[in-house]
Amino acid sequence: MSEENLLIPTEEYLKSGIHIGTKFRSKYMENFIYKTRSDGLSVLNLQKIDDRIRQAGNLISKYNAEDILVVCRRENGWKPVRLFAKLTGSKLFAGRYPPGVLTNPQLKNFMEAKLMLIVDVGPDRNALKDALTTGIPTIALCDTNNATNNIDFVLPCNNKGKKSLGLVFYLLSKLYLENRNLINKGQAMEYSIDDFSEE
Known about the structure:
- With 199 residues, the protein is of the alpha/beta class.
- It is 33% helix and 15% strand.
């Protein structure tokens, strides 16, 4: 794997545990799995993770910030998704997502979106149902155990770890800001990778 083609050095990826999956592997995620360790944990392919983060960043950048909705029920992801929403200006739903946020205008928290970014399709399944009902495309962070049917774009990664989620949203924020010409390519953002990760 050649370093210069990666978004960040391999050691940064490894340090975050972005590639460490679960003991369960779904048939949907087999293409992204590099190997299974002796302790039974599946390991995701770093090159594929890097490629998919880059592609996801390019996809997200095609949308105006106010048309993007990021959904995260898992507490480990609240800090990085909030920082992503703050930097990009996107909409955010952190916590339990009640059905109908996108489909029922009577709800207090009703909102409209043209793209949904989901942290984990298991806990965030209500959000995925809403996206399917309204017909908006979905990008989902998927671990080795996730089912990926009904998802438009799969971003393979450890979607449970704080450091891993911090790194994914750091890179997506940076790509979005660069692609939208809000910062120069290679320019440092005002927040570091560590700012995206819970302590």
